[in-house]
Design a protein that fits this description.
The chain is mainly alpha-helical. It is 59% helix and 5% strand. A two-stranded antiparallel sheet has the order 1-2. The longest helix has 18 residues.
Length: 87
């Protein structure tokens, strides 16, 4: 079942709060565990493709947790972290 965008935003905010409280940087592995997917899946969401570079279909299948239109929320967790690290 796909997580609704607002619910995903809330989950990500909770995850980032948890990272802050634990003084840990976000990681694919820990975010994946937090929302119930593997770190490989998080990597696929960040990159927008899976299995040897094959792009995600426009219509997600039933097994996917995050809709294509919401990949930006996952991506931003790590882009924002890179900006902090480089700033």
């Amino acid at each position: 079942m796909i997580i609704k965008r607002d619910d995903l935003k809330e989950m990500i905010n909770d995850y980032l709060d948890d990272c802050y409280l634990r003084d840990k940087k976000p990681s694919y592995n820990s975010l994946g565990k937090f929302i119930g997917v593997t770190q490989t899946t998080i990597s696929h969401y960040v990159n927008g493709y899976y299995r040897k570079g094959k792009p995600y279909e426009d219509i997600p299948n039933n097994a996917r947790k995050v809709h294509n239109n919401d990949f930006d929320l996952i991506r931003n967790v790590f882009v924002d972290q890179e900006d902090k690290d480089n700033g």
